UniProtKB/TrEMBL annotation:
Domain BON: 10-80
Organism: Nocardiopsis flavescens
InterPro entries tied to this protein: BON_dom (IPR007055)
Protein name per the record: BON domain-containing protein
Length: 86
């Protein structure tokens, strides 16, 4: 049982670290992206559209996080609306 508790704690820490890094490095609000971790296998999904740059950054941040063994980002919603050139 101790191993299961340790694994759950590690997964929570992984999720917290990824959320913090998404906010600090990409400006993605914590409530915008759902981070689920199970045994170091991370699943990213979003409740609001994010940019392609944020999606790529989120995958990179998650993959580089200590304890992560794989990343799935199929649940991330990317903003497909055309934006005027700046």
């Amino acid at each position: 049982m101790a191993g299961a508790t340790q694994g759950a704690l590690s997964d929570r820490l992984i999720g917290s670290k990824i959320h913090r890094d998404l906010a600090e490095r990409l400006g993605v609000p914590e409530e915008a992206v759902v981070v689920e971790s199970d045994g170091g296998r991370v699943r990213l999904s979003s409740v609001i559209p994010i940019t392609e740059e944020q999606r790529s950054g989120a995958i990179g941040i998650a993959a580089a996080t200590r304890g992560v063994v794989s990343v799935s980002a199929d649940g991330l919603i990317v903003d497909q609306a055309p934006h005027p050139a700046e």
